[in-house]
Design goal:
- The structure is a single chain.
- By secondary structure, the chain is an alpha/beta fold.
- The protein is about 55% helix and about 5% strand.
- The protein contains 20 helices and six strands.
- A six-stranded mixed beta sheet has the order 3-2-1-4-5-6, sandwiched between helices.
- Strand 2 and strand 3 form a beta hairpin.
Length: about 450
C-alpha cells in the first residue's frame, strides 16, 4: 500500500500539486494510524495531509479512484447460453456473412468476453496512450482505442446481424432481446476502455513527476537561479501549463450553466405570479481578452519570459492576447511569438532594439503605447503589467497608466519585488498601485503559475 501511496503522490505532483517529503511522510503515517478498511477515512486522511490549497482538491479527487478503487465494470452477459439449438444455428449462419475480423469480435460480445490485459496493453501502445500524462485526454484516448478495434464498424455489423436474424426467421422478440443484451455488453466494453485509459494515464503521471531537487526550483526566487536551472524550468513550462489548463477546464465545467441569477429569475416569473418556473443564470465565466506589457530588461527578463511562455501555452483558455515588451520603449511582440517559444521570442525582441546601453523607462513605453496601440485595450480587456515598477527616475506617466486602467475591465500588476521595497530608490510602484485591481508577487515560478491561474479564474 505504501508503494501505491507514493505513486499517487507522484501523480499529484505531475498534476501540479506541491508536496514536500515531510508531507509525503505525514500521509503514510496517517494511513498507518487510521488504516485502509474505511475508504472514506483513508481518502480524507490522504487529502488532509497532501492538499494545502482548495484549488488542488479537484485533481486529488479525480486521481484517487485510479490508484485505490477497484475497476467498476458491469458484468457482461453470455447470450449464447440462452439460445435454443435452432436459434444457435440461425445465429451461426448470420455470423458467417460478416467479415472475419468483425465476426470474431461480435462473437466475443455475444459470449460476454472483455478485452484481456494483453489486448488492452497492445491498444495502449498503438494509440499512444502509453505516452499520455494528462487526464483531460482520457475520453479522447478511449475513443482512439475504440477506433483501433473498429468499434463503429462493429456496431454497424451488429445492426446488420439483427436484420439477418429476423430475415432468417428468428422470433422478433428474441431478436430484440439479443439486441438489448449485446448493447449492454458494448457499454461495458466502453467502460473498460475508459477505465483502462484513466488508469494508464494516472500511472504515466506517477512516472513523470519532478524529482524533489527540481521541485524545489519551482519555489526558489527566479533571480537566484543559474542559467542551467532556468533551462530546466523552461522545460517544465509546458507541464505547468497543462496542470493550469486542467484546473481552468474543471472550473469551466463546474460553472457551465453559470450561477443562479435571483433577480432575473423573479423578473422572468412575474407573469407566473412570482412562482419560479423559468430559472435564469448569470453569464458563465468567459475567456479573458488579455493585453500584457512585459519588462524585458536584464533583471526582469526571466519573469517576463516565463509569463509569456505560460500565456502562449494556454491560448485555448484565452480569447485574445496582445503582448508587448519594453525596456526604454514599447514593442508589439504577439506576431513575434507565433511559431516560437517565449525564450526565442524575447531574444528576437532584444535583437530588434537598437544597440547600446538600456535604462528601463516604463513611462516612455506607456507613452508609446498610448500613441500607437490604444485601440488594443477596451472594456473587455484584462490589462497586465509584468515589471518591478522601476523607471530609473524617469517620468512614470501616471496619467497614461490611469487612463489605461480606466479603459480596461481590470488591471493586474505582477511584480517580483516585495511590497516593502516599493518606493525605494527609483521605484514608482506606490504611484501605480492605486490604479491596479490586483498586485501579485511573482518571486518564484510557482507564484507566477498561481498568478496566471488566478487571473484566468477572475
Amino acid at each position: 500500500m505504501q508503494d501505491r501511496i507514493l505513486k499517487f503522490i507522484s501523480a499529484l505532483r505531475s498534476g501540479g500539486v506541491r508536496i514536500s517529503l515531510a508531507e509525503s511522510s505525514d500521509a503514510v503515517l496517517a494511513v498507518e494510524e487510521l488504516g485502509v478498511k474505511d475508504r472514506n477515512s483513508f481518502r480524507v486522511s490522504l487529502r488532509a495531509t497532501l492538499i494545502k490549497d482548495a484549488e488542488h482538491i479537484d485533481i486529488f479527487e479525480e486521481l484517487f479512484p485510479y490508484f485505490f478503487d477497484s475497476p467498476n465494470i458491469p458484468p457482461l452477459l453470455n447470450l449464447t447460453g440462452d439460445l435454443t439449438p435452432d436459434e444457435a444455428d440461425l445465429l451461426a449462419e448470420a455470423l458467417q456473412n460478416l467479415k472475419q475480423e468483425l465476426r470474431e469480435f461480435v462473437d466475443r460480445l455475444l459470449k460476454g468476453e472483455l478485452l484481456s490485459q494483453q489486448e488492452l496493453d497492445q491498444l495502449g501502445k498503438i494509440t499512444g496512450l502509453n505516452n499520455a500524462a494528462d487526464l483531460r485526454y482520457r475520453e479522447w484516448m478511449a475513443q482512439r482505442m475504440e477506433r483501433a478495434i473498429l468499434f463503429r464498424q462493429i456496431k454497424k455489423a451488429i445492426r446488420e446481424l439483427m436484420d439477418q436474424l429476423a430475415e432468417l426467421g428468428m422470433d422478433r422478440e428474441k431478436v430484440d432481446q439479443i439486441n438489448r443484451m449485446i448493447k449492454q455488453n458494448q457499454a461495458a466494453l466502453q467502460d473498460q476502455l475508459r477505465q483502462y485509459a484513466g488508469n494508464r494515464i494516472a500511472e504515466n503521471m506517477s512516472e513523470h513527476s519532478i524529482d524533489d531537487g527540481h521541485q524545489d526550483l519551482l519555489n526558489q526566487p527566479i533571480s537566484s537561479l543559474s542559467e542551467k536551472e532556468l533551462d530546466y524550468l523552461r522545460s517544465e513550462i509546458q507541464r505547468l501549463a497543462t496542470a493550469l489548463r486542467t484546473r481552468v477546464s474543471l472550473r469551466q465545467k463546474r460553472s457551465k450553466n453559470g450561477q443562479l441569477d435571483a433577480k432575473a429569475t423573479i423578473r422572468a416569473n412575474l407573469k407566473h405570479g412570482n412562482v419560479p418556473i423559468e430559472i435564469r443564470h448569470k453569464d458563465k465565466h468567459k475567456k479573458p481578452k488579455i493585453v500584457v506589457i512585459c519588462d524585458v530588461s536584464t533583471s526582469m527578463r526571466p519573469y517576463s519570459e516565463f509569463m509569456l511562455s505560460l500565456l502562449h501555452a494556454m491560448q485555448d483558455q484565452i480569447k485574445k492576447t496582445h503582448a508587448f515588451a519594453f525596456i526604454d520603449h514599447i514593442e508589439y511582440i504577439s506576431t513575434d511569438i507565433q511559431g516560437k517559444n517565449a525564450h526565442e521570442a524575447v531574444s528576437f525582441v532584444l535583437e530588434k532594439m537598437p544597440a547600446g546601453h538600456y535604462n528601463t523607462d516604463l513611462g516612455n513605453s506607456l507613452q508609446n503605447f498610448a500613441d500607437h496601440f490604444m485601440d488594443k485595450i477596451d472594456s473587455r480587456s484584462t490589462f497586465i503589467v509584468v515589471g518591478d515598477g522601476r523607471n530609473n527616475y524617469n517620468d512614470p506617466s501616471i496619467r497614461i497608466f490611469r487612463e489605461l486602467a480606466r479603459r480596461s475591465h481590470r488591471t493586474i500588476w505582477l511584480n517580483p519585488e516585495a511590497q516593502a521595497l516599493w518606493g525605494s530608490g527609483d521605484s514608482d510602484m506606490p504611484q501605480y498601485a492605486p490604479y491596479c485591481d490586483s498586485i501579485l508577487q511573482i518571486r518564484t515560478l510557482s507564484e507566477l503559475s498561481a498568478a496566471v491561474d488566478r487571473l484566468l479564474s477572475m
